[in-house]
Structures are given as structure tokens and as C-alpha cells.
Amino acid sequence: MRHVLFRLEKDRYALPLDAVREVVVAPDRYSLVPHAGPAVCGVTTLRGRVVPVVDLKKLLSLEGPSAGAKVVLLELSRRELGLLVTEVEGIEAIEKVSPAPRPSRAVKGVARVGPLTVTVLDVEGVDDAVTHSFATGPSVR
Q1: What are phi and psi of 91, to 5 degrees?
Q2: May I ask which residue range the UniProt record assigns to the signal sequence (predicted)?
Q3: Which of 5, 108, 114, 115 is CA-nearest to residue 60?
Q4: Is residue 16 included in any domain, yes or no?
């Protein structure tokens, strides 16, 4: 199965190509979403469509500041979703995915692409994590 490979800082990740609609340059600004969790950057407009954008690094609870330059736009069953990533590296075939050392809702497993170890993300798991992020966003007093 073909996957889009991308980086979050120095770490490499992959998403199934059939779930990726396109890759765009990250916008300079986002419209804020009230009550959204910390991983939600906000929404942006792409060719007349309003798309929520999530900082994938924060969604995966990774350390360090975000440095997103690209948005990977996913075509999900319920909506479109943008994932802020550092850089997209290309498309590769991934045949075998092994279980992840630290499984999570969004991680399907790990795979080898040449000499590199790549974390393969589960599209539905990412969508569920985003939905959970919206549901458990900051409370209003």
C-alpha cells in the first residue's frame, strides 16, 4: 500500500495515500475555534472550503515547539481535516507494518522504508483523537 511520508521535526511518519487529498503550504493565520483543545490550530479556508487544522505534534503529545510548514489535507468519511507537519517527503510503498512499541489511538504501527523507521498513523484513530480533542477542550468559566 502506498503512503505519504512526512516529518514532524526529525521523526518520520506515514499516512495511507488514499486518505490524503492534497498537501498545501501552512497558512500564516487560522480562525480560532472556541472550546477546542490545545492541538487545534483553528480553521482555514482552502478553495472556498472551511477546514479545521490540527497540530499533529501536539495531537500525538510530542515534546517541543511546533514547527509546521505544510498541511496534509485528509479526506475523511465525515469531514476534511488538515494536519500541520514539518515537511512532506514523498510517497513510498509500505508492505509490512509491525506493532508500535507504544501503541496509541492514532498510531497503527512502525515500518521500515529503506534505512528509515517510520511511524504509520491510523487515519480513523487520528480522526477519533481530533474528535476527542474538540470534546475535551478547555472549559469556559
Answers
A1: -120, 135
A2: none
A3: 108
A4: yes
The answer to whether residue 141 is domain-embedded is no
Q: Is residue 104 part of a domain?
A: yes
Residue 15 structural domain: 2-135
Query: Would you say 124 and 100 are in contact if contact means Cβ atoms under 8 Å apart?
Result: no
- CATH number, domain of 129, equals 2.40.50.180
pTM: 0.91
Q: Any idea what DSSP says for residue 64?
A: S
CA dihedral 124, 127, 128, 130 (to 10 degrees): 160
As given in the structure block, the three cell numbers for residue 103 are: 501503541
H or E element that contains 124 = helix 123-135
**Number of domains within the chain:** 1
What is the Cα–Cα distance from 81 to 72, expressed in whole angstroms?
8
Q: List, in sequence order, the alpha helices (H) in the chain.
A: 56-59, 123-135
